[in-house]
Amino acid sequence: MELIQEIYEYLQLGKAKKVKALVQEALAENLDPKVILDEGLLAAMMDLGLKFKNNEVFVAEVLVAANAMHAGMNVLEPRLSAVGAEPVGRAVVGTVQGDLHDIGKNLVIMMLKGAGIETYDLGVDVETAAFIDKAEETGADIICMSALLTTTMIRMEECTAELQKRGLREKYILMVGGAPVTESFAEKIGADYYTPDAMNAAEVARKAVFKKKKGQH
Ligand code: B12
Predict the structure, then answer these.
(1) The whole model's pTM is what?
(2) Which of 81, 180, 184, 203 has its CA 20 to 30 A from that of 194?
(3) b/e per residue 160-197 (b: at least 16 CB within 10 A)
(4) How far, in Å, is the centroid of ligand 1 from the Cα of 180?
(5) pLDDT above 70 coverage of the chain, percent
(6) Using one digit for the tens of pLDDT, what is the confidence trace for 38-51?
(7) Where are any strands of DSSP class E within the chain?
């Protein structure tokens, strides 16, 4: 069976060790890391998501698949995040309070690192104030918030309000994303940028930091 197809199938079965080994094998065979990610790991996770939505699989199965996804992503990370010497900028990244989904957030981190942006991973279930506190502490340029639940997206709006309250709104580039988030939602809550995927997030973040450094934020 083709390696990418095997990665796809073993990920859905939640076989972390096997997925890890297959991703290593695929890299050894010089397959493009981006293809391994998109057509193997991500395609499997998205299709499993559909099955979950249709009640064809249970949370437990999605959870073991997510573990397998992490195992594969850990192998890919060094290849996707080849960082230059001097960071372009800094970002704090986390999943909002009440939300435990971290696969997308981890991908955003990988891609930001790849774009030369130093990242601080706040993890999941992060209180709004903690995003801002960490940004202040680390001298970050960007705050990146990820949400996968319609019930937790509200935390992003809380962040714009809290930044305003602290007189810091202009100091930070606020980026939001995650499956339920849309461009119009981002606009409505006063965030600076939304992108539908991690690849674009890195590009947009890079450009936004350059603009900010030129005083155009
Ligand atoms: C995996 C998964 C889980 C795993 C999470 C494991 C983990 N470690 O992350 C587990 C099993 C724990 C889980 C639990 C739950 N889940 Co869930 N889960 C999913 C699933 C199948 C895939 C999510 C995922 O990882 N996608 C792959 C990543 C790569 O995509 P992504 O996160 O969207 O990220 C990309 C972009 O959005 C973007 N991006 C992401 N973040 C950011 C941030 C910024 C700043 C930017 C710019 C871009 C960006 O870049 C990423 C890469 O390109 C989705 C289905 C789906 N289609 O989304 C449901 C889904 C999100 N879950 C759902 C639900 C309901 C739940 C539970 C409530 C289920 C339950 N009954 O317990 C719990 C909630 C737990 C909690 N409090 O968070 C619903 C949400 C419905 C809704 N509208 O709110 C979904 C949509 C499934 C469904 N259709 O019903 N889940």
Answers:
(1) 0.88
(2) 81
(3) bebbeeeeebebbbbbbbbeebeeebbeebebbbbbee
(4) 9
(5) 96
(6) 899 989 988 988 89
(7) 89-96, 117-126, 142-146, 173-177, 193-194
Q: Determine which residue's CA is closest to atom 71 belonging to ligand 1.
A: 59
Residues with CB under 6 A from ligand 1: 42, 45-46, 48-49, 52-53, 59, 62-63, 66, 98-105, 107-108, 144-146, 148-151, 175-180, 195, 197-198, 201
**Residue-level pLDDT at 50:** 85
Q: What is the mean pLDDT of residues 51-66?
A: 88
Distances (CA, A) of 89 to 6, 101, 108: 38, 25, 15
Beta-carbon contacts of residue 21 (< 8 Å; ≥ 6 apart): none
Which pLDDT value is given to residue 88?
85
Please report where in the chains the tokens 């573990």 appear, as a residue: 67
pLDDT at 213 exceeding the cut of 60: yes
Mean pLDDT value of segment 33-37: 90
Q: Which atom of ligand 1 is nearest to the CA of 144?
A: 45
Give distance in angstroms: CA of 90 to centre of ligand 1: 25
Q: Atom 88 (ligand 1): residue with closest C-alpha?
A: 53
- Name residues whose C-beta falls within 8 Å of residue 173's C-beta, 6 or more positions apart in sequence: 141, 142, 143, 192, 193, 205, 208, 209, 212, 217
